[in-house]
Please model this.
Amino acid sequence: MAPARDAPRSRRGAAPAALAVSLALGDALLPACSLPPQRPTDADLLAASAAAPRGVQTFATFCAPCHGKRGQGVGEAPPVLGPGALPEFPRDAVPTRNSLYRDLQQMQIDSQTRPVGFPWRAPFRNAEDLVSFLALHLAKAQRGEVRPEDDRAVVTYLLAAQGAALPSEGVTAENARSIPVPHF
Model:
């Protein structure tokens, strides 16, 4: 008769113990691994509103209908606030299948201002780049209502909401080139 082997040990007791240890370690390490809140936070938006009241009003009137109240992007309009907003280099636009979201005026502007094979916009490196983009790409119907100082006020609001360090006077024609755009 062959000697009896030890019966395999049950792992039923090991699983709950391992789970309890991993949960305890996870709770201990979670504060060190947690991500900072995504911008813009409510506090960021409040501070940006105080820094650029004219920019908030202009944004709400002319930008929010397409880009959303918090700048999150709606339809084909990209986000202008938050993670991934205002990237330095342009991304290729991904058209939606619903033609109701297509801005025919913007498509006409793009076809007239973009040589074939070129990026659809210049890089966003500083506030001046954003102001120039706004001046060129705001819908023609709205362009007559928005002045260059309104464009700078909107850029001041956007950059303040993204946490950029801005001078007390905000973005001006004189300092726009020296204010970098934060990229997340």
Q: What stands out?
A: The chain has seven helices and no strands. The helical segments are 14-33, 42-51, 53-67, 104-113, 127-137, 140-143, 148-161. The first helix runs from residue 14 to 33.
